[in-house]
Amino acid sequence: MNNAQSAYFIINWLTEHYLELTGTVLGLIYISLSVRQKIMTWPFGIATSVVYAFVFFASRFYAGMGLQIYYVAISVYGWFYWLRGKRTDESKELSASKITPRLIGWSVLLFLISFISMYLFLSFKTDSPVPLMDGLTTSLSVVATWLLARKILENWLIWIIANLLSIGLYMFQNLWPTAILFGVYEVLAIYGYFQWKRRMQNQPDEK
User: pLDDT digit string (tens) for 149-175?
Assistant: First the structure.
């Protein structure tokens, strides 16, 4: 392949995948901001979700597409909660906290309802090629995003599992930019967990 052919191939590939690449860039900004606990996490989260709703629709990841609609709604909630959520001092930003037994119960319930309903819907009402994995990764992401919106430390542990499964899923569907993005997500999720934990340890007086 000569230089002209290589250039044509690259331009053609970029043209065909420009939407996915846009979502990749926005997603990286989003996850980087969330690791640093920045309020701009949520506007970039909304933008990323809108772009990926179109990407997943084209790839027949219907649960993933529906998840993006949920992401938009939970991003609005997270934006409000990080600004106005419970805190001991209104002059300070909302602090991260550890999960409680009550939240564990709600998280398990949310996961089971999401997974069962999505798996059945994808299996019998759509032409999804991977209903089990699509439903599983989607349900884990539903729980993780809700906990992120509540600024719960353990959201990162769920993201670690969800991202790892998603990498294999997107590779299977030849969504390579998205698979690479989730590989970066995996690294950032691990980093985010320890970063949040370290920050919590350095602020012992905050609840």
Answer: 999 999 999 999 999 999 998 888 787
Question: Which residue is listed with tokens 């052919």?
Answer: 5
Residue 90 lies in a domain: no
Secondary structure (DSSP) of 106-133: HHHHHHHHHHHHHHHHHHHHS--S-HHH
- Answer yes or no: is 207 within a domain: no
CA nearest neighbour of 55 among 18, 12, 19, 24: 19
Q: 17 is in which domain, residue-wise?
A: 3-82+96-201
Report the number of distinct structural domains present in the chain: 1
Q: In this structure, are residues 96 and 109 in contact, taking their beta carbons and an 8 Å threshold?
A: no
- Name the residue with tokens 């699509």: 134
Encoded amino acid at 191, one letter: Y
Is 89 within a domain? no
pLDDT of residue 173: 79
Q: What is the pTM of this model?
A: 0.81
DSSP secondary structure letters along 141-200:
HHHHHHHHHTTBTTHHHHHHHHHHHHHHHHHHTT-HHHHHHHHHHHHHHHHHHHHHHHHH
